[in-house]
Design a protein that fits this description.
Elements (H helix, E strand, L loop, with lengths): L14 E8 L5 H11 L3 E2 L9 E6 L2 E6 L8 E6 L3 H11 L9 E4 L3 E5 L5 E5 L11 E10 L3 H10 L5 E6 L2 E7 L5 E7 L10 E6 L3 H9 L3 E6 L2 E8 L6 E11 L33
Parallel strand pairs: 1-4, 5-8, 9-12, 13-16
Antiparallel strand pairs: 1-13, 2-3, 3-4, 5-9, 6-7, 7-8, 10-11, 11-12, 14-15, 15-16
Bound molecules: fe (ii) ion (FE2).
The site of fe (ii) ion has 6 residues, from β1 and β13.
Length: about 290
Amino acid sequence: MAETYDRTRGDTGNIVALEHVNVTIPDQRPATAFYIAGMGFTRDPYVQVGLDNMWVNIGRSQCHLPNGNPQRLRGTIGIVVPDLGELAQRLKKVTPWLKDTQFGFQAHADRIEATCPWGNRFRCHAPSPEFGPAELALAYVEFEVPRGTTEGIARFYREALRATAATEQRGSDALARVEAGASQQLLFRETSDPLPPYDGHHIQIYLADFSGPHRFLIERGLITEESNEHQYRFRDIVDLDSGKPLFTIEHEVRSLRNPLYARPLVNRNPAQTNTAYTRGHDAFRGTY
Ligand SMILES: [Fe+2]
C-alpha cells in the first residue's frame, strides 16, 4: 500500500462523449476541399456516402454535413491534429479551390485558426496533455454566450444533465466548462458581442444516465423531440430558477445502447500521396 492516488482525477460526469457537430452545407465540393483535403480528416466510407449528406471522421468524433442552407455554429470548434505544420501546408494547397468562399486560415505559434467555406471557425491545436492523449480529436466546442449566463449554464449542466461543470475566468471573460467525456469539453465563453440568431445546427452527446436528465427536462417542457428509443433532443439551456433561456443549442442526446455508440471510425494518414507514398502507412497511426 505504498502509493496513493488522487482517485477524483479519474471521475467523469454523466456526459460520456461529444460525438458530433452537425451543420448543414449547400455543396459537397467545397466541403471536400476544406474538411478532407485541407483539414486532413476522413470521409466516413460506410455511412452517408451519397450526395445529400457527408459524415467526416475526426478521431473518435465526426462533423455531420447534410445538404441545406449553410449553418454556422455560434462559437469555435476545437480540434487536435498531429502536426500543425503539415496542416498549414494542406490548407495552403486548397486555397485556390476555395477562393470565392469564406475560407481562410491563420497560423500562430501554438495553433491554426481556420474558417470553413461558410464561416464555421475551427481552432486547431497540437497534441497536449490538456487535451488528453489523443493526437486527432474533436477536443471541445466553445460557444459564445451573453454576459451573466455562465453560472446558470454550469448549474443547468450539473442539475439537468448530471454533468461535471464549473465556471472559471479566462482572461477577461467568464467561462463555463462542462466535461463531455474523458478528454472533451463544452465551453461557454461570455461575450459582449451581439449573437446571431440560432439557425438550427446541433451537437450530439452520449449520456450514461439517460433517463434521469430526460425526466428532468420533460418536467420543465424542454424536450423538443422524442427521436426513438435511444435518442431525444432539447434546445434550450435555461436558468433553473426563472426558466428563462440562457442559450440555445440543440443537443441530440443518445444512450450508450444507441447502435451508433462508439462505432469504430476510419481515419487516414493525410500525408500519403501517389508520389510520396509509404507502403503500410495509409491508416492514421497516431493515438485517437
Ligand atoms: Fe446529429
